[in-house]
């Protein structure tokens, strides 16, 4: 694979899915049972097939009849609790204007292909379902075909066709002007680095043909990574966006200048952000009316052309409008949760420390709590940079006994009790027990708090003790490790102080630098760090190079322990630091795994990667992650008692949420 293809925009995503079937054709059925909901739901909707607010527009002649707005065979979503009440406003919150993941996952999770609500992470296509489009993948994962739903329309009533998808793929995703750092590698053949052949088969169908297997594309679509701000997407309305594209509008740069931005590419990316540009047509259940940055809340109203129905043929969504308040502090969100101000809310406030007060206020706030099992694998992992610019530190940090000694010096139980309300167990950076990639050695090694063992390994690492108890490095200077901690993880800021105390007891000084998330990433990317903390994520093969893989140094998003190796891999050896043989073997296995269409072989390759990670012991882990949770008002219906964290709450079809007694 060429180095250019690996140059991608970084993003924080939780990767989902663990493999691909050799071939599959996925029908457009829903996870929810499509049997009749019963008389109760029928009566609740008063026999109407659409929201009264839309029916009024139809009666006035300002909106076409429902039959002309729906596709020929709309997906059928049964309301989970049988509540089919039209109307109401869904009130929720986002934590600062940066928290757009809530907007995407709650209000606009409509990828071409989506995860089923009962996703477990098993390899294969069984946990995916057609959404905007049906799809097929050939036996080698070289030919991927998407067929849009017949009669599908954008929120402005214009047809959604193959021309829209081809425009998005060729003129947005694969346009060098919009992606100066390189085209995302999911659209390139792994063997050549060249863009796949993308062709229009008919008015609803687009086919992508690769010269080598590219099994990760469908997983990444279901993960929603193409649903984000900037010049991205798999399906954008050509009739709207072509006015901002230089290929279609020679005056696009003049438009950009008039808008006060540098170029047409900047303007295009700006216009593609639906949260700041309410003019953009959408396929989501609701469309923006008050954009982000204009006031204290983002507001949305129902999309009159939304293309899904319930089991009685009633157009979704049930809820008329949404209001997302922008709060500046998680404690403010917590107080509003306790006061019962949100119809349904998840994220930010759902910590172990907050759960007792959230539970105590259920009656007062008239809400219930639902559980969200986490996809994270560790509360805090410490990556010590084995590719450090300083040769003395590089040699020390690369010494496995040094890292083992530091791990044994951590009293994990005291941190779990003090920071995580006693929830979780000592755990290294490793997949959980229920993962098909579980590796017991990786998960459980070097967790015991034992100062004697810590000192033994630090002795083996060649660190002599000075008279004052401090450990001395090869240069004769006291050993210190400066750990970057992102301010976006306040628990890390607290937990690292406990680690500091324990490392000092074995002669190693830990210095902390609490910095913004962006600065932490910049420092890591520049290889200007001793160590850094983060949360541990999931292991996924096949996947994109943008995923945070943790156990193999493929990118700067996860290789805090070996950023130089990741840069070497991404540049095909032209930059960075050449890895040792064991790391090279991992990278070879990873590259092979990303291109393997057989899920059984993919699983085996992943296990080999993790075994090497276990033997090398890259990250020092802290503890397993307690499940998080959300709240729903007692009159906010069709929210399950439990939903998995992947793209939550989008994974459980928010379009079937309903408000009413």
Task: Briefly say what this structure is.
The protein has 661 residues and is an alpha+beta fold.
Features:
Dipeptide-binding Protein, domain 1; D-Maltodextrin-Binding Protein, domain 2; 5-stranded mixed beta sheet; 16% strand; Dipeptide-binding Protein, domain 3; 29% helix; 661 residues; alpha+beta
Task: Outline the structure in words.
The chain has 661 residues and is an alpha+beta fold. It has three domains: 79-100 and 284-373 and 627-660, Periplasmic binding protein-like II (D-Maltodextrin-Binding Protein, domain 2), CATH 3.40.190.10; 111-273, Dipeptide-binding Protein, domain 1 (Alpha-Beta Complex), CATH 3.90.76; 378-621, Dipeptide-binding Protein, domain 3. It contains 22 helices and 23 strands. It has a five-stranded antiparallel sheet with strand order 1-5-6-8-7, covered by helices on one side. It has a five-stranded mixed sheet with strand order 18-17-19-14-20. It has a four-stranded mixed sheet with strand order 2-11-10-9. β7 (197-202) and β8 form a beta hairpin. The longest helix has 18 residues, at 599-616. It is a lipid-anchor. This is Peptide/nickel transport system substrate-binding protein. Residues 132-556 form the Solute-binding protein family domain. GO terms for molecular function: peptide transmembrane transporter activity. Pfam families: SBP_bac_5.
Q: Note poorly predicted spans.
A: 1-46
Question: What would you say the CATH architecture of the largest domain is?
Answer: Roll
Structural class call reads: alpha+beta
Main β-sheet description: 5 strands, antiparallel
- Given this structure, which CATH class of the largest domain is correct? Alpha Beta
Rg measurement, Å: 26 Å
CATH superfamily of the largest domain: Dipeptide-binding Protein, Domain 3
User: At the third CATH level, what is the topology name of the largest domain?
Assistant: Dipeptide-binding Protein, domain 3
* Multimeric state: single chain
Main location: membrane
Pfam family, one: SBP_bac_5
Membrane topology: Lipid-anchor
Subcellular location: Cell membrane
């Amino acid at each position: 694979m060429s180095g250019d293809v690996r140059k991608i925009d970084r993003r924080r995503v939780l990767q989902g899915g663990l493999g691909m079937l050799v071939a599959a054709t996925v029908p457009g059925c829903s996870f929810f049972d499509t049997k009749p909901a019963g008389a109760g739901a029928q009566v609740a909707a008063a026999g109407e097939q659409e929201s009264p607010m839309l029916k009024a527009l139809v009666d006035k002649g300002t909106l076409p009849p429902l039959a002309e707005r729906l596709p020929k065979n709309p997906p059928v979503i049964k309301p989970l609790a049988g509540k089919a009440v039209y109307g109401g406003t869904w009130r929720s919150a986002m934590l600062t204007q940066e928290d757009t993941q809530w907007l995407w996952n709650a209000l606009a999770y409509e990828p071409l292909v989506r995860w089923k609500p009962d996703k477990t992470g098993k390899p294969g296509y069984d946990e995916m379902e057609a959404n905007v489009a049906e799809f097929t993948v050939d036996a080698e994962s070289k030919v991927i075909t998407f067929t849009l739903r017949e009669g599908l329309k954008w929120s402005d009533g214009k047809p959604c066709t193959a021309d829209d998808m081809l425009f998005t793929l060729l003129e947005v995703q694969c346009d060098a002007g919009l992606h100066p750092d390189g085209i995302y590698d999911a659209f390139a053949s792994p063997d050549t680095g060249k863009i796949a052949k993308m062709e229009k088969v008919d008015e609803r169908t687009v086919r992508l043909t690769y010269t080598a297997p590219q099994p990760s594309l469908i997983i990444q679509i279901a993960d929603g990574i193409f649903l984000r701000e900037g010049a991205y997407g798999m399906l954008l309305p050509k009739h709207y966006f072509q006015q901002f594209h230089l290929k279609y509008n020679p005056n696009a740069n003049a438009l950009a200048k008039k808008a006060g931005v540098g170029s047409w590419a900047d303007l295009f990316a700006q216009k593609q952000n639906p949260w700041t540009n309410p003019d953009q047509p959408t396929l989501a259940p609701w469309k923006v009316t008050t954009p982000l940055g204009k006031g204290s809340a983002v507001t949305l109203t129902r999309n009159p052309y939304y293309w899904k129905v319930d089991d009685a043929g009633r157009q979704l969504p049930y809820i008329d409008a949404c209001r997302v308040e922008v709060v500046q502090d998680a404690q403010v969100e917590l107080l509003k949760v306790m006061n019962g101000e949100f119809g349904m809310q998840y994220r930010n406030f759902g910590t172990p420390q907050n759960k007792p007060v959230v539970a105590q206020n259920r009656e007062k706030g008239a809400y219930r709590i639902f559980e969200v099992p986490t996809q994270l694998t560790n509360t805090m992992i410490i990556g010590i940079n084995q590719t450090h610019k300083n040769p003395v530190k590089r040699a020390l940090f690369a010494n496995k006994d040094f890292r083992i000694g530091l791990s044994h010096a951590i009293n994990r139980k005291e941190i779990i009790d003090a920071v995580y309300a006693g929830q979780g167990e000592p755990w290294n950076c490793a997949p959980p027990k229920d993962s098909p990639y579980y590796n017991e050695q990786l998960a459980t090694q070097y967790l015991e708090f034992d100062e004697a063992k810590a000192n033994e390994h630090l002795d083996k690492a060649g660190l002599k003790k000075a008279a004052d108890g401090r450990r001395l490095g090869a240069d004769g200077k006291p050993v210190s490790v400066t750990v970057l901690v992102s301010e976006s993880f306040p628990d890390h800021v607290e937990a690292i102080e406990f680690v500091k105390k324990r490392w000092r007891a074995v002669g190693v000084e830990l210095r902390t630098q609490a910095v913004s998330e962006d600065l932490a990433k910049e420092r890591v990317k520049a290889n200007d760090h001793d160590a850094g903390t983060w949360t541990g994520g999931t292991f996924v093969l096949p996947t994109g190079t943008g995923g945070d893989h943790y156990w193999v140094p493929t990118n700067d998003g996860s290789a805090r322990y070996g950023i130089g190796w990741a840069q070497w891999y991404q540049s095909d050896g032209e930059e960075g630091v050449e890895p040792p043989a064991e790391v090279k073997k991992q990278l070879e296995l990873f590259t092979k795994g990303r291109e393997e269409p057989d899920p059984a072989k993919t699983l085996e390759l992943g296990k080999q990667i993790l075994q090497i990670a276990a033997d090398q012991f890259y990250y020092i882990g802290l503890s397993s992650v307690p499940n998080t949770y959300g709240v729903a008002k007692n009159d906010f219906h069709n929210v399950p008692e439990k939903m998995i964290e992947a793209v939550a709450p989008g994974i459980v079809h928010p379009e079937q949420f309903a408000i009413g007694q």
